[in-house]
Amino acid sequence: MSSKGKLITLEGIDGSGKSTVAGRLASNPEFSDFVFTREPTGSWIGEAVDRAIHSDTDHLAELMLFAADHAEHISKLIRPSLDSGRHVISDRYSASRYAYQGMTLADRFDDPLDWVRNLHRDWTIEPDLTILFDVDPGTAVARCGSRGDKTKFEKIGFLEGVRANYLRLAKENPDSFVIIDAGKSIDETEAELIDIIHSFLKR
Ligand code: ADP
């Protein structure tokens, strides 16, 4: 019997509230054994990703940086943590690339989401559970309004496309995706997230 940990990923458009709720979980003693992480990571490759998303970098070059950061994240943190039996919660993971670069690369490929997904095939670790924080882009952008470090992605039209990509992924992977209505209050969203994690780990 395997004693591997489970990989749970939090996804959603900018301003959907993932980071706020992940931060609350990370300081909740009930989750003290979990590994909390995020993409882009804090590694030098993650810093390169940050530079790309705050500049006018070529979209394919940007994707490759994201993919490199993902590879480093998996080998240095995700795989060793899961192998040691710890559960991992990642604020953004591979589905962020499928959803976001599925938009930024729309002019280069017929089905950019699928192209980006194929790029990850055979080396990524698939999440056991992906929780999609689904919210209307207007609400999300309004929430981000006061945020200092805005990225080029925080525009309603763009985020509508990203949201559609996320919903497509959820539809194509009904066994591993759960959708949260993230238009609700932070407290309600957090309570729903905790319920989902509890029932998943009991399965
Ligand atoms: P994400 O990580 O999904 O981009 P954040 O957690 O950083 O989103 O949230 C973006 C902003 O919205 C923050 O200022 C946060 O306080 C606020 N926020 C997050 N969740 C909610 C919510 N459910 N209701 C209202 N505001 C929220």
TrEMBL record:
<keyword id="KW-0418">Kinase</keyword>
<dbReference type="GO" id="GO:0005737">
    <property type="term" value="C:cytoplasm"/>
</dbReference>
<comment type="similarity">
    <text>Belongs to the thymidylate kinase family.</text>
</comment>
<dbReference type="InterPro" id="IPR027417">
    <property type="entry name" value="P-loop_NTPase"/>
</dbReference>
<dbReference type="InterPro" id="IPR018094">
    <property type="entry name" value="Thymidylate_kinase"/>
</dbReference>
<dbReference type="GO" id="GO:0006235">
    <property type="term" value="P:dTTP biosynthetic process"/>
</dbReference>
<keyword id="KW-0545">Nucleotide biosynthesis</keyword>
<feature type="domain" description="Thymidylate kinase-like">
    <location>
        <begin position="10"/>
        <end position="192"/>
    </location>
</feature>
<dbReference type="InterPro" id="IPR039430">
    <property type="entry name" value="Thymidylate_kin-like_dom"/>
</dbReference>
<dbReference type="GO" id="GO:0006227">
    <property type="term" value="P:dUDP biosynthetic process"/>
</dbReference>
<protein>
    <recommendedName>
        <fullName>Probable thymidylate kinase</fullName>
        <ecNumber>2.7.4.9</ecNumber>
    </recommendedName>
</protein>
<dbReference type="GO" id="GO:0006233">
    <property type="term" value="P:dTDP biosynthetic process"/>
</dbReference>
<keyword id="KW-0067">ATP-binding</keyword>
<dbReference type="GO" id="GO:0005524">
    <property type="term" value="F:ATP binding"/>
</dbReference>
<dbReference type="GO" id="GO:0004798">
    <property type="term" value="F:dTMP kinase activity"/>
</dbReference>
<keyword id="KW-0808">Transferase</keyword>
<dbReference type="Pfam" id="PF02223">
    <property type="entry name" value="Thymidylate_kin"/>
</dbReference>
<feature type="binding site">
    <location>
        <begin position="12"/>
        <end position="19"/>
    </location>
    <ligand>
        <name>ATP</name>
    </ligand>
</feature>
<keyword id="KW-0547">Nucleotide-binding</keyword>
